[in-house]
Automatic annotation (TrEMBL):
It comes from Paraburkholderia eburnea. It is a multi-pass membrane protein. It is found in: Cell outer membrane. GO terms for molecular function: siderophore uptake transmembrane transporter activity; signaling receptor activity. Transmembrane segments: none annotated. One of its GO terms (cellular component) is cell outer membrane. Residues 95-145 form the Secretin/TonB short N-terminal domain. This is Iron complex outermembrane receptor protein. The keyword Amino-acid biosynthesis does not apply. Its main location: membrane. Belongs to the TonB-dependent receptor family.
Length: 839
């Protein structure tokens, strides 16, 4: 075994030493044209803020650096962030620059044109700042404060600063990203890996993109991402994050740990304002994450403490009596950068789109980071989120919304419930930690854990079918009281080393998930209602409740090796899981056991061309335990998923962009369906398949223009089924989806400080459950306008006003029909206007 060699292409010299969203101490090596071009693929301010590199110096390099420093040569460095300018200058000079990115955060440079020596060029770029340049004995150029500041580490050639997080100018696998183009992700490999090197399709929704689009739900945040079908329950289901990836259900994760639900109505949901980024990983993921739906996962990463002080408050108003207030504070505690804090909060209230309904929320998310040294980081975080009300979870019948009704069309504000009976109240509380310690330059250990509690009280009257007169809606009632506690922990060890000519990033881990729930559930009857002339106020009797207790456990061990031989990358991973569930029927004094185990694996291969093109091929698997038994009393085996994916990723060298394309074949097996020989029982003869193509582009064409675009084609059918679905399309999944979002910011002239953007979202036609009819396609338009008041009134620096409109043209459309003839209207026009102030 030999020491780890510096990686080529677009890898940092060494991997980050702390798994926390933070800023890092960086060395950019540009000794050869190949390495220089590779580094130019990462925008400099991003690389300086998000990567970690161990100082690597040789005597030959020092000699070469000295010769280079004395010579003058022409430079052309564009104006922009100071970190970007310093990196561009270093690339053109062919030297190494090392700095603590905290020093240049928020600073800008006028650029540099003309002939200079290296020292004079750096000095010119740093003129007017409190920074200076110096060259170490090894030839590395160091940017440092002109005068030492207490408790502020000064970079040194042979030392590494404590790892920290920065609020902006950052691009890392764990932290926020400036702009809409993220280059790194930890979600696909659980190690810091460039997205172009991950052999599975990944998209990242950055904080900037969420702000541009003013995304207020998880569905809204991922509307423009390829392969994701959002808002399958339209504008009535804000309480749940109901979406699909590649035609199948997807799991939601928070800070790398699954948001566990009890299978009833106690479903976790965290407000996206509390997040810095959202990663979308498509396809089976069980090798790293255990039991998981075949569609993939969405991982939401919290806003966590920053070393750079950050303060933001905001207010917002909109139609439907929308009111919102936000705050976000972060920075060192008492000026000591070993102790960092963050406090983020949001309050929101508004009328629901459906008549007589309301949305209300208050959420608070404090966090604390302790960095005792440069090898250790511990972050504690918590959540309190209270939703006293949420809009109706009802529906409209297909006849009168999608299908012709001779009596007319049912309005999208139609309410199928009873306000006197309706209630929804949910409280979520969570505490967790993220810990990392570097044992040495090769090995590090991580631990990530969280406890989560959900308390929910739900009662509703809902439509159950339209009678033959085309206007009388039969209704039923439901009551559910849930208490759910869950705990998840993921322990990992990561090693970076070489065996001969092959570099390895090895990951091994053990994770555990536990869920315990107690719920009382009941279904009852309710009086019918006229959908065209509804009269509310009918008396509804509360149904009798059946009480159930359930607990489940999952244990998993996994191992993964990312191998690199020259420009060839290979990833191999294996995992073994054990899962068990015990369900106690308290009311009827019954008990059921379910014990499962599953082995899953994945593999991938890719090649890094010098021009930034990376073709890849991968195979991956998933499993999900299923409750129940067949006619012989045999417990059902887990549902299994497997995917073949062939793709290509392109990260240009000369501008900030990421292009991805993928074709895939994804199959779910062991699905429950009617037993062909005994219709009163179920068997596992079902199978569903999804094949498709995904195209996606994230581009910052200039520092003013951001563009996101995607196209998805899906062919989803039941390939095996005994209930009449075989050969039919999956409900609510479109064959075609496309989106385009563009956002432009004016930096100079009389309109400086003005930003504006717009986008369009196309969703193709979808099928009902039995494919007896189709739901029409629809196209929606969004728009945004924002102005930085500091450009017009300097004393208002940090204040901005904005207006966002979603479904700007107020199109009325049915989002989907599901479970027979139950359908849901999509969101009407939503207009939000607000004011933010940052300092």
């Amino acid at each position: 075994m030999s020491a780890r060699r510096p990686r080529r292409a677009i890898q940092p010299v060494a991997r980050p030493a702390a798994r926390q969203r933070r800023q890092r101490f960086v060395m950019l090596t540009t000794r050869s044209a190949a390495v220089a071009l590779a580094l130019r693929a990462i925008p400099a301010s991003l690389a300086l803020g998000g990567l970690c590199a161990a100082p690597v110096a040789f005597a030959a390099q020092a000699s070469a650096s000295a010769a280079t420093a004395a010579a003058s040569q022409p430079y052309n460095v564009a104006a922009g962030p100071l970190g970007t300018a310093l990196s561009d200058f270093a690339v053109q000079a062919g030297v190494t620059v090392q700095l603590d990115a905290r020093l240049v955060d928020g600073l800008r440079s006028a650029g540099l044109q003309g002939s200079y020596s290296v020292a004079d060029g750096f000095g010119k770029l740093l003129a007017g700042t409190k920074l200076e340049i110096a060259q170490s004995s090894t030839g590395i150029w160091l940017v440092r404060p002109r005068a030492a500041v207490a408790d502020t580490p000064t970079p040194a050639a042979d030392a590494t600063l404590p790892t920290v997080k920065v609020a902006a100018q950052n691009d890392s696998p764990y932290g926020p990203t400036e702009g809409v183009v993220a280059k790194w992700s930890s979600t696909g490999t659980k190690t810091g890996t460039p997205i172009v090197e991950a052999q599975q399709s990944i998209s990242v929704v950055t904080r900037d993109q969420m702000n541009e689009q003013n995304a207020q739900t998880l569905n809204a945040a991922v509307r423009y991402e390829a392969g994701v079908t959002t808002e399958t329950r339209g504008g009535i289901a804000t309480r749940y994050d109901m979406l699909n990836i590649r035609g199948f259900s997807a799991d939601t994760y928070w800070n790398g740990l699954k948001q566990i639900q009890n299978g009833m109505y106690s479903v976790p949901q965290v407000d996206p304002y509390l997040m810095d980024r959202i990663d979308v990983l498509r396809g089976p993921v069980s090798v790293l994450y255990g039991q998981a739906n075949a569609g993939g996962l969405i991982n939401q990463e919290s806003k966590l403490p920053t070393v750079q002080p950050y303060h933001e408050v905001g207010v917002e108003f909109g139609n439907d009596r929308h009111q919102q207030a936000t705050m976000d504070f972060s920075g060192p505690i008492a000026g000591d950068q070993h102790y960092l804090y963050r406090f983020t909060a949001i309050g929101r209230q508004e009328d629901g789109q459906v008549e007589s309904t309301r949305n209300e929320r208050v959420a608070v998310a404090p966090s604390f980071t302790w960095r005792p040294d440069d090898k250790t980081t511990l972050t504690l975080y918590a959540l309190y989120q209270r939703d006293p009300a949420s809009t109706s979870y009802g529906s409209v019948p297909a006849v009168g919304s999608v299908l012709f009704n001779p009596l007319g069309t049912i309005g999208r504000s139609f309410y199928d419930g009873e306000a006197s009976f309706e209630r929804f109240s949910r409280t979520q509380e969570a505490v967790g930690y993220q810990f990392e310690h570097a044992l040495d330059n090769t090995w590090k250990v991580r631990s990530n854990a969280r406890y989560y509690h959900i308390s929910q009280d739900y009662a509703s009257v809902y439509g159950s079918g339209l009678e033959d007169d085309d206007r009388t809606l039969d209704r039923a009632s439901i009551v559910s009281n849930d208490q759910t506690n869950s705990f998840a922990i993921d322990n990992q060890v990561e090693g970076n080393f070489s065996t001969g000519p092959v570099d390895h990033t090895v990951l091994a881990g053990f994770d555990y998930q536990h869920m315990a729930t107690h719920y009382a559930l009941g279904y009852g009857s309710a009086p019918s209602i006229d959908v065209f002339d509804p009269v509310y106020g009918a008396s509804v009797d509360a149904p009798a409740l059946t009480r159930t207790q359930s607990s489940s456990n999952q244990y998993g061990v996994y191992a993964q090796d990312q191998l690199r031989y020259k420009k060839m990358l290979v990833t191999l991973g294996v995992r073994q899981d054990w899962a068990n569930t015990v369900t106690n029927g308290i009311t009827d004094n019954t008990r059921q056991w379910q014990n499962d185990h599953a082995f899953t694996w994945r593999g991938g291969i890719s090649y890094l061309f010098d021009n930034g093109i990376v073709p890849y091929f991968s195979y991956s698997e998933s499993f999900v335990p299923q409750s129940g038994t067949d006619i012989n009393g045999k417990a059902f085996d887990p549902e299994r998923g497997r995917q073949y994916e062939l793709g290509i990723k392109y990260q240009p060298k000369h501008y900030n962009a990421l292009f991805t394309a993928a074709i895939f074949d994804l199959t779910r097996k062991n699905l429950l369906t009617t037993d062909a020989n005994n219709p009163n029982y179920q068997s596992q003869a079902g199978e569903a398949r999804s094949r498709g193509v995904e195209l996606e582009a994230k581009v910052s064409l200039t520092r003013s223009l951001d563009v996101s675009a995607s196209y998805t084609y899906l062919d989803t059918i039941y390939t095996k089924d005994n209930s009449g679905l075989q050969g039919k399309h999956l409900a609510a999944i479109p064959s075609n989806q496309a989106s385009l979002w563009a956002y432009y910011t004016i930096h100079g002239g009389p309109l400086a400080g003005l930003s504006f953007g717009g986008g369009g979202r196309y969703t193709g036609a979808t099928y009902s459950t039995d494919n007896s009819f189709q739901v029409r396609s629809f196209f929606l338009v969004d728009a945004a306008l924002r102005y930085d008041l500091g450009y017009a009134i300097p004393r208002l620096k940090g204040a901005e006003v904005y207006v966002n409109a979603q479904n700007l043209l107020n199109k009325t459309y049915v989002a989907s029909c599901y479970y027979g003839n139950y359908c849901a209207y999509g969101y009407g026009r939503q207009v939000f206007a607000g004011l933010n102030y940052r300092w």
